[in-house]
Amino acid sequence: MPEEETQGEDILDVVRDFRFNSSSDRYNRDYQDWRRFSKSHYAFRFMKNKKERVYVEGTGFLNSGAAEATRTALRRVGKVIGIALLVYLLCDLGGSALLVWIFQRLGFHVSGSLFSTQMYGSQWGIVFVKMIDIFLRYALTALVLQCCFRLPFSVCASYRPTASSDVLQGSALALLVGTVVCVLSDLTGTSQLSQQLLYSYTNGKAVLVYVMYEITFASMLIEMLYRGMLLPVLRQFGDKFAVSVIVLIAFLQPNSLPYRIGEALLGLLCGYFMLRTGSLFCCYLIRIAYVLTTFGQLALDSNQVDRHTIHRIYVLITLVALVSFVVMTLIRKQRKSKAYICNQCLYLSTQDKLAAFFSSTTMLPWVAVMILLGMLQIFQG
């Protein structure tokens, strides 16, 4: 064996050993370049000669280093993500009240209270407040992350086309998830927090503008935050770890229980397809399919459709989604498949990685507040 090849095997390089294997070669290359050459302090890079060992008295020789480097990097990344999520929480709790105060000074007949989603007055004014509030929540959170992580635009906003079979397969599963959420919402008598203000509205144009905004622009912002910024950074420590953490973050965000479950399931779905395709555009279309299903429930309830007809519609959507998924799966089986979720980053166990990430000085308070808010919501509901 040549000497250079032997030396290469003796060197532990976490970036070299990482498998960049989405179906988009450009995404793989740009993501690898960010990890290898970025000036960001949050790109996880570690190299060590495997033959180097440290002697610890009473223990013996240890061949360690990667585990502690992973733990340190996780805490550093967790601190930034915690700050960003606390910014999101602050905007969520007090952003609407601040915007209501500004709109009142501008002459709009809008009123509301601090830490409450309830608003009264002009329906157009309330819709504008909600739209700006959604934009500021995600834009400020993304700004905090981008200032630290410095992800290239081709990674955090990779809106490049992908195979239609991927989009159709993911959208079919999203329809199934949306149907499950609608059924759970119907059984529990709850609705998504962002949709509750629309049930009493009589201005059809205002409702339509808000619904289109959530389906298109808000969906793009959410996917850019979760799959565009959080996933690439967390993926450095393992594919399954990254998807699991984002699912947990989405589940803990304030919402009614059926929609928390829906966001968690959608997080699994979009996370997998992001790793598979390297295209945020695919995840964006998958989320649109999900949001269309959930807003469909709002349309049915607003038109006072009887429950029997609604249940038949749910069954029809389920059948169409299942058939589409099966057809797309059969089509994909004819192609050469890859193991897309394969990076495990086994320098630390999953338990140790979660402990290091969530024990950072900002993630721990955020998790505590989210659990407290969730308990309050359950007891008040």
From TrEMBL:
Record's protein name: CAAX prenyl protease 2/Lysostaphin resistance protein A-like domain-containing protein
GO-annotated biological processes: CAAX-box protein maturation
Stretches that traverse the bilayer: 80-103, 123-145, 207-226, 282-300, 312-331, 354-379
Mitochondrion found in the keyword field: no
InterPro entries: Rce1/LyrA-like_dom
GO MF entry, a single one: endopeptidase activity
Domain CAAX prenyl protease 2/Lysostaphin resistance protein A-like: residue ranges: 208-290
Keywords: Membrane, Transmembrane, Transmembrane helix
Pfam families linked: Rce1-like (PF02517)
Membrane among keywords: yes
Lineage: Bacteria, Bacillati, Bacillota, Clostridia, Eubacteriales
Superkingdom, taxonomy of origin: Bacteria
